[in-house]
Specification:
alpha/beta, ABC transporter transmembrane region fold, four-stranded antiparallel β-sheet, binds adenosine-5'-triphosphate, ABC_transporter-like_ATP-bd, nucleotide-binding, ATP hydrolysis activity
């Protein structure tokens, strides 16, 4: 229960609902317990009528009164039971909602390292399945526990009053029932976890094969894929049948134990009646109803125990994530003015997980409004420089200054709001093109969106789609070409009009002519803005105010296009190579 203490703050938050729920539960039980007592009364009325030769009218009047009491109590009890669920179960839904938000907020704060260390499936499971199990504790488990305790206390008092000996025999099989249900629930949970695992394996497999359907078809491996699917589906079916075997025991066990208790009541009660220890046969009828009333709540003791154990395990997993202190923290609550002056001073950076030293002693200075181009072989550290400017990671040694202030001392929100980042793999959400472009600036007008798309040279493509800017992208929508995706992603960055623009090899999928146009537009609109362009192409770098060439995390060349094409080294080699390759579009 230690882990579940995390929920206490929520129970406190919804204390009024909970208290009302508990009171309603107790009152509802009291009303529902009118039934057995009035059933006994009916027996007594009839027994007395025979003994005393009562008139038919008098018996009818007494019976009608008793029946009306039973109906009235059942109606009130039913209404209160409805409100019991409406209060306690609703609280569990509120807690589920709060907990999901708490986890999601924490996810957003955690750094990229966290996402690399944890699988997406695991992150999703904690916010869905684990929270779902915790909800079962916060709602049904609490409701059934209160219900059971309230019912038990009241019923036992009534029963002892009626016949202590019969009470003892009646409740004797109940603990056995509880233990059996507990064991069954545990086994059901164990087997259903396995079933769940197989279901998620099956859905991951299907999802991957649909995403990679073009590769599957191109390689003609449909029969093999179908065979793999069949194997997984068969295993999944076998596990489901295993589960059904245990589940099938649940109700027969309950019926058996209820039957045993009923027989005991009839036998022991009958003997007591014959011996004159109980006065009315109605007591036996009353006890039979008690037994049936108690069975379900007692069975739930076993079920609730298993729910609490599962919730404890799930909350433990959730707490593991909630306790992680975000690596990248906002160290400045005040507003930071960002102008776009970016300076790296002897920066070293090593990735934690791979221990790869991606940057070694990097130094450069970009003044507001200037453009820096970074070139270098694959894996030389270019993207890492951009990630560090956006403070996606904190550095090990050296310093990164923005406006002469250490990057870690700037307000993180202001820093990121002033950065427009276009990643290597343009990621677009399954939404309209317009929403994807507006992602960087929610209050952008339609004119702003069109302007940004024009500058990114993608407007003409968009208006050719039937629904233009309202065209939906992604799974249920259309698929953009690699170059179109990159340009929508550029429009998303420039619409923000940020102080610093970061382009990570984001023009690789567009032809050099379009690249030229985009770069010209960016030059025009980014007057006074700082740009860092990572590229493998000279065409993207040649107009930059400064160019650096990286190799194995070190700067091996730096200068302008004119100086570098006249200096032996990587830049000149690349220039000559691309010049000969691209005679149609001279550099
Ligand atoms: N998230 C990461 N975790 C661990 N190591 C990384 C990570 N990203 C990059 N690296 C490693 O750091 C080094 C520099 O990578 P980086 O992505 O900065 O290179 P790059 O020059 O941008 O490459 P490319 O041109 O292929 O995009 C590489 O050796 C890479 O394997």
């Amino acid at each position: 229960m230690k882990e579940l203490q995390h929920l206490n703050k929520y129970f406190y938050k919804y204390k009024t609902h909970l208290v009302i729920g508990i009171v309603i539960t107790i009152v509802a039980r009291i009303f529902l317990l009118f039934t057995p007592r009035y059933v006994k009364k009916i027996f007594v009325i009839i027994e007395n009528a025979f003994k005393n030769n009562a008139t038919e009218a008098a018996v009818k009047a007494d019976l009608t009164e008793a029946i009306l009491y039973i109906i009235g109590a059942a109606v009130v009890g039913g209404i209160l039971t409805f409100f019991m669920r409406q209060t306690i179960i609703n609280v569990s839904r509120y807690i589920e909602y709060d907990l999901k938000n708490e986890i999601y907020e924490q996810y957003q704060k955690l750094s990229l390292n966290f996402y690399k260390k944890n699988r997406t499936g695991d992150l999703m499971n904690r916010i869905t399945e684990d929270v779902g199990r915790v909800r079962m504790y916060a709602g049904p488990a609490i409701m059934y526990s209160i219900n059971t305790v309230a019912l038990f206390v009241i019923v036992i008092i009534y029963m002892v009053n009626a016949s202590p000996k019969l009470t003892l025999y009646t409740i004797l099989p109940l603990p056995i029932l509880s233990i059996i249900i507990y064991k069954l629930s545990k086994e059901i949970h164990k087997r259903s976890t396995i079933v769940q695992e197989y279901l998620s394996k099956l859905s991951t497999f299907t999802q991957e094969s649909f995403s990679g359907i073009s590769v599957i078809k191109a390689y003609g491996i449909e029969p093999q894929t179908a065979l793999n699917f069949n194997t997984l589906a068969k295993e999944s079916k076998d596990k489901q049948i295993d589960l059904n075997k245990v589940q099938a025991w649940f109700f027969p066990m309950m019926i058996l134990l209820i039957g045993t208790s009923n027989l005991l009541v009839i036998y022991v009660g009958g003997m007591q009646y014959i011996n004159g220890e109980i006065k009315s046969i109605g007591t036996i009828a009353e006890f039979i109803i008690y037994v049936n009333m108690l069975t379900w709540p007692v069975a739930t003791v076993g079920w609730v125990t298993s729910i609490v154990q599962q919730a404890e395990a799930s909350q433990k997993r959730i707490n593991e994530f909630l306790k992680i202190v975000p690596e990248i923290k906002n160290n400045n609550a005040n507003h930071s003015e960002i102008t776009g002056d970016v300076q790296f001073k002897d920066v070293n950076f090593t990735y934690d997980d791979t221990n790869i030293q991606a940057l070694k002693g990097i130094s450069f200075h970009i003044k507001p409004g200037d453009t820096l181009a970074i070139l270098g072989k694959t894996g030389s550290g270019k993207s890492t420089v951009l990630d560090l400017v956006g403070r996606l990671y904190d550095i090990d040694q050296g310093s990164i200054l923005i406006n002469d202030t250490e990057i870690a001392d700037l307000n993180l929100v202001d820093l990121r709001n002033n950065i427009g980042y276009v990643p290597q793999d343009a990621f677009l959400f399954s939404d309209s093109i317009k929403t994807n472009i507006k992602f960087g600036k929610h209050d952008a007008t339609d004119e702003d969106v069109i302007e940004a798309a024009k500058n990114a040279q993608v407007h003409k493509n968009i208006i050719k789609f039937n629904k233009g800017y309202d065209t939906i992208l992604g799974e249920r929508g259309i698929t953009l070409s690699g170059g179109q995706k990159q340009r929508v992603s550029i429009a998303r960055a420039i619409i923000k009009s940020p102080k610093i623009l970061l382009f990570d090899d984001c023009l690789s999928a567009v032809d050099t002519e379009t690249e030229e146009k985009i770069l010209n537009n960016i030059n025009k609109i980014s007057k006074g803005k700082t740009g860092i362009i990572v590229s493998h192409r000279i065409s993207a770098a040649k107009n930059a105010d400064k160019i650096i060439v990286l190799d194995h995390g070190k700067i091996v060349q730096e200068g302008t296009h004119d100086t570098l094409i006249n200096t032996d080294g990587y830049y000149k080699e690349l220039y000559l190579k691309q010049l000969s390759e691209n005679t149609a579009n001279p550099l």
